[in-house]
Amino acid sequence: xxTKTLNDLFYETLKDIYYAERQIVKALPKMARGxxxxxxxxxxxxxxxxxxxxxxxxKQVFELIGKRAQGKTCDAIExxxxxxxxxxxxxxxxxxxxxxxxxxxxxxxxxxxxxxGTLRAWAGQLGLKDAAKLLExxxxxxxxxxxxxxxxxxxxxxxxxxxxx
Length: 165
What we know:
With about 160 residues, this protein is mainly alpha-helical. It has helices spanning about 5-35, 40-65, 75-90, 95-125, 130-165.
């Protein structure tokens, strides 16, 4: 059996997040359509545009390491997105829908933050400075989105869900 290296792990994880981002960009319009709060709807729409840019950055990272941009099925993101679909179906038309959608979106963000933080660190270890910069840019966007969602939850969405309880 061939010895696996950090380069191999970096590449495999890059394929994982590439797949995840491509699934997320498909899910965000559904979440936006389902959202009742206008600010939450706008956040989903804005993040779709950001995600498209993140996919382009990932393609650049693949180029930097001399590999073709390709994804591999990510069971984690499949599960997280499936939970979001369940929330859309089970809570449709209820005051709790937005709180559930927001929680599902934050689960996605936390997964992405974990992946991008790891990839950025590995890129640094591997001497891939340009890749590390691209991954850092995306990590900052994901963290900013997570902060925005937290603010929406605390200021409006969770409050509205509780009032209707």
